[in-house]
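Narrative summary of target 7.
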Amino acid sequence: MYNRSDQFAKNVLRDALSRASTSETEVEVLAATQKIDVYSVPDPARDAERAQMGLLGELSAEPSLFEPFHKTPGRREIRHCLRKQLTWHHELERRARAAAGVPSSDADPEAPPPQPVPFPALVIISPGRPETALEGYGCKPVRPGVYQAVPELAMRIVVLAELPRTRETLLLRLLGSGRLMREALADLSALPDDAWERSVATPLLVHFRLGTGGPAKSEEEEDDVSAEIQAWFQEYQQKLRNDAIKEGLQEGLQEGRKAGLKEGERTLLLRQLRARFGELPAAVVARVEAADVAELERWGERVLSAKTLAEVLDEAS
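Modeled conformation, tokenized:
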């Protein structure tokens, strides 16, 4: 998975699952050419967080491999994921034998470890309905948009186009494109500012937007997703600006309109920086608060293209 659309999906899953699990991306398995997109192990101490995560929380209630697809997969693509699932279980058993102190020279690679290792589940995330795969692997619907394969495969297939438009499916629907993504972005914007979905998705949407050079032209599908993110990003930026200027004007009424506009620019910039780079050092906040309007506007223009805080604020990298 190399294009921005795939990287966006992988990062959304990793960051969302990290609320209630130990999650990793691009987990190498024994075969050098195989990588698990996202591997998640639930943390029992964070069951409350998982319960808030809707469908994604349900799917991550056991150790699971998550494999999102930008195009609807067929049997061959899913067979490749099943191979990773089997190989990864074999590796987990090898690690369990090593942790138990069984010398590798004495260990039978086919023998079970002293303590059983749960077989990891496989979650396939598909934009459309993979008819041949659903039929070929004996998948049955378990809820709208979610199909379960025969028990021994420990595999579920999530069809994004069939998920109901509810909050509990929002993070997964955000991995789609076209109408599906537009609806998910609208639903995300309608959530309260402190919603956990916003804290996960907003920084990644900002990071994986079109970029300053315009959309990449290597894949038509990637252009579609990038265009959706770009449209959302522009609306998001305008909302931040309107809210910040309004807040600044209210705070600066006693000092006049000019002071209010300055406060609005300052508030906007701090929000942009936090959305782009996370929590800010105290020194950065102090510098922004001390800046004049010209500096604030100049820095605000750089937020979209800068890769680091230093690039925004003219600091030496």
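Residues 210-222 have pLDDT under 50 and may be disordered.
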